[in-house]
Amino acid sequence: xxxxxxxxxxxxxxxxxxxxxxxxxxxxxxxxxxxxxxxxxxxxxxxxxxxxxxxxxxxxxxxxxxxxxxxxxxxxxxxxxxxxxxxxxxxxxxxxxxxxxxxxxxxxxxxxxxxxxxxxxxxxxxxxxxxxxxxxxxxxxxxxxxxxxxxxxxxxxxxxxx
Length: 162
Description:
Elements: H1 2-9, H2 28-52, E1 60-64, E2 68-69, E3 81-82, E4 87-91, H3 128-139, H4 145-149
Antiparallel strand pairs: 1-4, 2-3
């Protein structure tokens, strides 16, 4: 609510919200279920507020983690850190109802065609830098001081267009 009030007032253009409970080295299934329930409830509440404020054509939500969880369980019925993760983007500027990127059943990355994003052994591995670069482009930040001070070397891909 505070972030949206700041946005409506023109004093902020972004907010970073966090939630915990995903570092499930033990009792993974129950802890992840609880954490995902809190996350999905929070996303729904935020989007309800965005719509109530009439900002759905101006707000983009970007939900991500800094890492994923291993495909198998450890000795404590938990899952440890894994370098493959997921991101969810929704709202203004995002073409929805799509999955981009691919993994094997063992949760290993599969190269994709950089135009169609379909599996292609001669393709590329999508990285968080690709997503951030596409977001910067969408927001017009590629010529901004932030982009110059924190450059992304990932190729600019049409990730957000349908």
